[in-house]
Amino acid sequence: MTPEDAMALAIAESERVRGATSPNPPVGCVILDEGGKAVGFGATRPIGGAHAEVMALHEAGTKARGGTAVVTLEPCAHYGRTPPCTEALKEAGIKHVVHAVSDPNPRAAGGAKVLTDAGITVESGVLEQEVSRGPLRAWLHYARTGRPHVTWKYAASLDGRVAASDGTSQWISSETSRREVHELRAKLDAIIVGSGTVKADDPALTARDAGGMPLARQPLPVVVGMSDLPRGAKLEHTALHLRTHDPDEVLAALAERGVVEVLLEGGPTLAGAFLRAGRVDRVLAYIAPALLGDGPAAVLGAGVSTITDAVRLTVEDVTMSGPDLRVSAVPRT
Amino acid sequence: MTPEDAMALAIAESERVRGATSPNPPVGCVILDEGGKAVGFGATRPIGGAHAEVMALHEAGTKARGGTAVVTLEPCAHYGRTPPCTEALKEAGIKHVVHAVSDPNPRAAGGAKVLTDAGITVESGVLEQEVSRGPLRAWLHYARTGRPHVTWKYAASLDGRVAASDGTSQWISSETSRREVHELRAKLDAIIVGSGTVKADDPALTARDAGGMPLARQPLPVVVGMSDLPRGAKLEHTALHLRTHDPDEVLAALAERGVVEVLLEGGPTLAGAFLRAGRVDRVLAYIAPALLGDGPAAVLGAGVSTITDAVRLTVEDVTMSGPDLRVSAVPRT
Question: What binding details are noted for the cofactor (chains A, B) (predicted)?
């Protein structure tokens, strides 16, 4: 098996644990034996548990000797909650390490050097983009900035309305798109809404399957705003309520709680505040092929008064989600 | 050459004359000799001129004898401004006719029967969808309904704004998208704007090339609205001014002038009136990857007050136009 093929399998491993490892990164690892056959698979365990390399080495056992470890992130060389992975790789007799992304965390970095010093060959950058834009995207952002990665998700009509003029909005987007959002919710740490959304829609912000049953992993629901939550609201006892309108205060409070990736779900005023502060790292728009011609817009008060101040984005990806368009875009840097 | 390959060439022929044949359809024709070799190409000449079949037979000359005529529309069997194409095909000794689309016009239809009666084999439906959704789309709509085909085109930000809150809008969409619109303008018969747009933007509504020079074909500029055009406006002496707000009155006036295909360019109120009346046959949205958060919307007053009344569309096609999304959608029937 080539290192690229093994890395694709390591990525798949890491995808299985997305949302379950914060504040640690969701890493995937595949061990190839001396002949290049995959003999061990592993992914990061929840906080305090083993790292991906250790899980994969455990499965490989003695077959790891003389083999290759293919891992989505540079193996760590420091003692944290668990011993360094570099030691485990050396002890198992691994001869080659292939990783996708170097560790940007100064405390954990240096793994490649430790390995090289022990006579292990190290190759970096294999499927680097797939990993850094995929499973490790949020964690890399968090490691570099100290802030959780924010995806602003909204569903609107083709003409940018999130509801009709009477306020009805169920359902602008298709069942396929709504199911996709529930799957996404289960893969990240927190969902943020404004207190206005709680008053208007009384959301539960849970991740549910097609039959309406809760998925195994549930994100932390977060409500942002000064006013108390309505009595009897679904989020009254489950949500973290942050009494501020400052996106940076919100993100600092979440980072303290080990939140790496958040989904900003609304409403328009809160989205405007995050955009104005430059705290939207990705826009995920579900655009329904419908026209409303009236009704509230997806974003309000983004701080743009003239066209040259528009928040310019780069489209990363456009796909169909059932009948809807799914647009993923990032702010232009 | 297979009939499909020849039809693809006939479609390309017809594309070259789009916008130059109204109220006649832009038809393309390829003549294959007895051995299946393409020996003649033709497309509809401007009104009063020869039809595609006659043009292609002229080029093929005696090589047409025993051959096949591949044509995007069923050959006409009636005396209009020119003699029937069925006669020309018979005289040229054509043995087989392959067409994509049957003629919906009762006055011109019956061509297939005339040909069959003369011992010519006739096959219909080859690349039918490519033709009926492509070069003959507007004309087929016109032939069936008596109304010009209306494409509503707009450019907006991802959040559905056509301008910033101070009214600036140059340029929301990219140069690539703007150039595409100019090429589109040259391929249809008329462009409609509201008198509000004339006051706000003073558009020329010409089709220009990348260097700003006018293209060979120019659509008829049409201004809809009660108020007089401002003195000195670029459209003051060039535009047809229709003093009505009723889309059906606008379309009837244009149909009388032989207009088959129009581009509705704005503004939001006029777009709302056409949508409300069910007179938008296709929506062409250029969506710029930018967020404005304030500013006017693409459509106003579409007659939708609650979500279940939304004008539902089906997305036909999504492509990138430079950095912009280009979405083509049709009302759901």
Answer: Binds 1 zinc ion.
Residue of A154, A158, A284 to mutate for B, most B C-beta atoms under 10 A: A158
Answer whether B272 touches A (CB < 8 Å): yes
- Residues in chain B closer than 8 A to A164 (CB atoms): 304-307, 309-310
DSSP 8-state secondary structure symbol assigned to residue B207:
-
CATH of the domain at B255: 3.40.430.10
- Tell me the pLDDT tens digit for each residue of A236-247: 989 999 999 999
Is residue A21 located within the same domain as residue A55?
yes
Average pLDDT along chain A: 92
Say yes or no for a CB contact (<8 Å) between A161 and B314: no
Where residue A108 falls among pLDDT bands split at 50, 70, 90? Answer: low
**Judgement on whether residues B160 and B96 belong to the same structural domain of the protein:** no
Task: Check if A284 contacts B (Cβ < 8 Å).
Answer: no
A169 pLDDT band, cuts 50/70/90, is: confident
CATH number at residue A102: 3.40.140.10
Question: Shortest CA distance to B114 belongs to which of B143, B81, B90, B140?
Answer: B90
Domain boundary, last residue among B140, B171, B191:
B140
pLDDT at position B141 is 96
Region A164-171 average pLDDT: 78
pLDDT at A255 over 90: yes
Interface size A-B, in CB pairs within 8 Å, comes to 173
| Domain carrying residue A78 | 3-140
Distances (CA, A) of B256 to B191, B251, B259, B273: 16, 9, 7, 21
A30 vs A8, A62, A94, A215, A319, CA distance in Å? 9, 14, 12, 27, 30
Q: Is the pLDDT of residue A65 over 90?
A: yes
Conformation bin of residue A322: beta by default, left when phi > 0, alpha when psi is -120 to 50: left
Q: Does B213 touch chain A (CB under 8 A)?
A: no
> What is d(CA B299, CA A155) in angstroms, rounded to the nearest whole number?
18
pLDDT digits (tens, 9 = 90+) for A178-221: 999 999 999 999 999 999 889 988 999 999 988 888 888 899 99
Residues B175 and B252 in one domain: yes
* A308 DSSP assignment: G
Q: A56 pLDDT exceeds 90?
A: yes
Residues with Cβ within 8 Å of residue B156, at least 6 apart in sequence = A159, A160, B162, B172, B285, B286, B287, B288, B297, B298
Verify that B187 and B273 share a domain, yes or no: yes
- How far B164 CA lies from chain A's nearest CA (Å)? 5
> To which residue do tokens 């006649």 refer?
B24
Domain end position, chosen among B140, B159, B174: B140
| ipTM score assigned to the predicted complex | 0.82
Residues of chain B with pLDDT under 50: none
Q: How many domains is chain B partitioned into structurally?
A: 2
Same-domain status, B285 and B219 = yes
Q: Which of B36, B42, B37, B39 is nearest to B10 (CA)?
A: B42
Please indicate, yes or no, whether residues A166 and A295 belong to a single structural domain of this protein: yes
Can you give the pLDDT at residue B212?
A: 86
Distance CA A121, CA B280 (A): 64
The answer to whether residues A115 and A89 touch, using CB atoms and an 8 Å cutoff, is: yes
What gap in Å lies between CA A226 and CA B295, rounded to an integer?
27
Out of A13, A15, A53, A59, the active site residue is A53
Chain A: residue whose CA lies nearest to B324: A315
pLDDT confidence of residue A115: 96
Q: Contacts of residue B327 in chain A, CB cutoff 8 Å?
A: 158, 289, 325
Whose CA is closest to A173, among A196, A188, A154, A198? Answer: A154
